[in-house]
Protein: Helicase ATP-binding domain-containing protein
Organism: Rotaria socialis
Amino acid sequence: GKTNIAMLTILSELRRHYDVKNNVLLDTDFKIIYVAPMKALASEMVQNFSQRLSSLGLQVKELTGDMQLTKAEIERTHMIITTPEKWDVVTRKSTGDTKFVQSVKLLIIDEIHLLHEDRGPVIEALVARTLRQVEQTQESIRIVGLSATLPNYIDIAKFLFVNLMTGLFFFDHRFRPVPLAQTFIGIKGANKMATTKNLDDVCYDKVLEQIKVGRQQVLVFVHARNATVRTGLQLVEYARNRGDLEYFLYKEKDDDGQHESRQYQEACRHVSHSKNVQLRDLFPNGIGIHHAGMLRQDRNLVEKYFSKGFIKVLVCTATLAWGV
């Protein structure tokens, strides 16, 4: 729901610069800045907002370490998706970018709870600099902070100079469309190998339990990149040895009811051309892997086929948790 809230604040800002009768943007001298926590998420957000705002003639671009923009491009762009570090660099410069920074009307900071982590000081500096700019120019800039996990939201609201009566919105678990359940399982072992073995056993049992129930899919998060491959291969081995492999396979048939669906056959063909050997080995067994060390195109394939249901179990690192 956070992206939709960001969308509403963007539309609220656009209303001031839009002629509804003639369906055109009146003045293009305004900027909306969306600060995403990581580069991987920035490109996803650009796609999302570009698609949804294209009918209004809004230009959305990414400005991160990977994607540079020329001055002319920045002038043409209405909405810029960036990372805290990149926006920090842009706003530090006293000359050159001044006009660009002064045309900012809306600053959206996603995952504002990062204030509590290593990158917190960067976000603090961004907010402080924005508030100072408002004082100096006497032109208001709206700051919106979004977070899904924030217990001390009143402290953050005061830090952002939010009016607690009219500008602070808090949604607890009652607003969840899908209720969340948590289960903790303690795992012991005489030594490290035994503990790992027990962990694998429990992981497999839990995964199997979920995918047996209807058409459920499972995400398994691990700590390290190489653990994604190890866990994936381990799950396949368990499934083979215990005769459970059928539960992991994609079963949808084509309209004739005889052959596997065309989309799935096409997916298999695409994956078979991947340079990632482990991904090629695991995919036919309904298991995928995802981590930041993989090529961008492989990660995109995995995300696409997981959302289509071709991958039943996806073993991944925390990078994907941000996107989820």
Observations:
- The domain at 1-175 is CATH 3.40.50.300 (Rossmann fold).
